[in-house]
Amino acid sequence: MRERIIAAGFQVLLQLGENKASMNEIANAAGVSRGTVYRYFGNRDRLVDAVIEHSTHVYWDAIDARLVDSMSLGDKIEARVRTSIRFSKGLGDRLASGSVDLYRRLFSADSGRTVKLSVERTIPILEIARERGELRDDLDIQATAEWITRIVLSLIWLPVSSVVDLTDEEAGAKYVREMIMRGIGSEGTE
Fold first, then answer.
1. Alpha-carbon distance 87 to 153, whole Å?
2. In terms of pTM, does the model score above 0.85?
3. Quick one: three-class SS letters along the chain?
4. What burial class does residue 102 get, using C-beta atoms within 10 Å of its C-beta: 0-12 exposed, 13-18 middle, 19+ buried?
């Protein structure tokens, strides 16, 4: 039931924006009573927090679905960037629909949670790369994971470049891969 309400809340918040979405509209979209929504979440802020958490996990689940253990670090970076670019393409439409407050909150007020999750999911990728000899030995894994996180998240919020079309998945992915691997890759890796 909780997941059903969160999914409905996600859709209503995207459609109407955080300021216009009511608990009643979310309850209707979930096919439950308003009381049920309050029973699970207590208040609107807790529901919005759960929706933001859900949104972050949806983004990361989409990335994880594209990664395969046998992929090189460069390939994993490209897959992550492609997913981020695809995610950012829909962002303009979502912002236009009135959900700008939700996404501003996701990447500002709640950015610590977003960055933390991203770093947590990047560390194992880097550890595997180090074991394979794809990563420079002198790098701090935690700091590198945060740096990559900041680069990739910037694609969502700043999809403009004077060098490459960052709305083009192929071009953007190759560009970011080249720049990141040039900085963190061991000699001979790409």
1. 10
2. no
3. CHHHHHHHHHHHHHHHCCCCCCHHHHHHHHCCCHHHHHHHHCCHHHHHHHHHHHHHHHHHHHHHHHCCCCCCHHHHHHHHHHHHHHHHHHHHHHHHHHHHHHHHHHHCCCHHHHHHHHHHHHHHHHHHHHHCCCECCCCCHHHHHHHHHHHHHHHHHCCCCCCCCCCCHHHHHHHHHHHHHHHHECCCCC
4. buried
User: pLDDT digit string (tens) for 94-145?
Assistant: 555 555 566 666 555 566 777 888 899 999 999 999 999 999 989 999 999 9
81 neighbors 122 (Cβ within 8 angstroms): no
